[in-house]
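Feature request, filed as a ticket because there's no other form

It would be nice if the structure record came with a short human-readable summary line next to the tokens. Right now we just get the raw output. Example of a typical job, pasted below so the devs can see what we mean:
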Amino acid sequence: MSTVLRKEFSNLEFDPDELRARYKAERDKRIRPEGNAQYVNVSGEFAHFIDDPYVEPGFSREPLTDEIDIVIIGGGFGGLLAGARFREAGLANVRIIEAGGDFGGTWYWNRYPGAQCDIESYCYLPLLEELGYMPKEKYSYAPEIFEHAQRIAKSFDLYDDVCFQTKVTDLTWDEDAAQWIVSTDRDDVMRARFVVMATGPLNRPKLPAIPGLEDFEGHTFHTSRWDYDYTGGDHTGNLDKLGDKRIAMIGTGATTIQSLPYVGAHAEHLYLFQRTPSSVDLRGNSPTDLEWAETLEPGWQRERRQNFNDMLIGRPVEKDLVNDGWTDIFRNLRRLMPRGDEPAVSMEEAMALAELADFNKMNSVRARVDNDVADDETAEMLKPWYRQFCKRPTFNDEYLPTFNRPNVTLVDTSDSQGVERITQNGIVANGVEYEVDCIIYATGFEVGTPYTRRAGYEITGQNGQKLSDYWEDGLKTLHGFSAHGFPNCFQLGLGQNGFSVNLTAMLDDQAQHVAYIISEVMARGASYSQPTVAGEAEWVATIRGLAVMSTSFFEACTPGYYNNEGRVGERGGLFTESYAPGNNAFNTLLAEWRKTGEMAGLELN
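Raw output as currently delivered:
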């Protein structure tokens, strides 16, 4: 053991072996054999959970049967950034298809009280420099984010050719015409030379497959379709219709962390059903310092985003520009690493120090629970026992104190792996029935389910090959964007590319890269491009070869969408299929790829 490790481990006030054992025990009791099958497909009898409450009923229009250069599927930030960057590249003949009634994606749907970004807004809201906009606060609330999505659409004329309230039902490649046939639920049969799928990871509400889900006779809704007619109030709270209502909330992710304080403040009684507690760190929101904003130099947003990305994979930086709960653990790690004349540490020693920094961080998170929650038993149930990035960390200053309210009850279901069943009158957990008037499903969005299920349509490429079959044993792509046998078809979002928790930064860089490929296909007079078999295989091997350390990390994690519900070996997980050196390194790789002009790994026909 190096001098650095001996020094750090000799000063510990806790036993790392005891923590590892506790983490493993908590993980093991939550593993479910069904994996992602523990969630139902929100269709059929559950389709009302995905209805759009924000549009007037009865919308109709004439079907479209025209031809267009580029169809973008999805009007969230992925689709918006694709549209904006395509316009910049001179690709004008673009149409966006969006299921909602406006742009915004997740921020069109998520209007629950307290909805807020958990990445600082100066990094999260895209195109701030290009549009000359500065967010009002360090962490923007949903109305401002939705407004910014509309600002992007207006600034790049994306409202000129968009199909709202329209869902793609099928994509089929026509080899003779070298076009995609795009069918929709509005009876459209339009043709597109290029298709860009930007449906995003957070678009399809997720419901737990609890027995009796359809039996409850009270009121229900999903947080992504918040029912203000039932609760009263608006995004800022004032849920004045809940004063005589007994409310159940299921789920303890970011949505509950943000919305529960508002429900708890107004409901006659609130029961929160928890399987795994979230890590809840300080939020510490503050208004934007306008004097600071005036000092920013051109290129500040990209610099800030890159700094954030480096911090989150532990790469050394001169200064932590973001300085928040996300980067705190890595500031702690930096303090543990050798300095000055101290000898460097090996990779194994660096990983041991990273685990130590993680233990320290999570100990402070658990200590915060003790400080904020008066009842010892409740506090113990709210403590997260896993590594910091096993699940997406959350940040809130009102969530934990809400459990000090006499009308708020935490029902921990970890020993029974979740709620047992739903009855006509309420919820059964740990053998006890809780009668309620309303069940609010705060269960998030599907992330780990197959792409075609989340997208809601099948993609049929050359020779009748279906994408769901092609990816049955795992993703096969070049750089995460396209697959052999599916020409001129690009996917933006999570895949075999550079991942960042700051999704909008990741999507922006992806959009610019796809704009380059499409422009080159057109400029070179080709009909289409697609990965070569060899190029695709080489990239998949690269991804899998670099994923060893992240795979072992997530295999030890409590189950969730980060690790495919604890079944990393089947379809990987959110991170194990990404480019392990990080998003900044991935963007450098793509920049070098573009610079050569060789389009390596792609074939043009």
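Something like this underneath would help us a lot:
The mean pLDDT is 90.
The longest helix spans residues 347-372.
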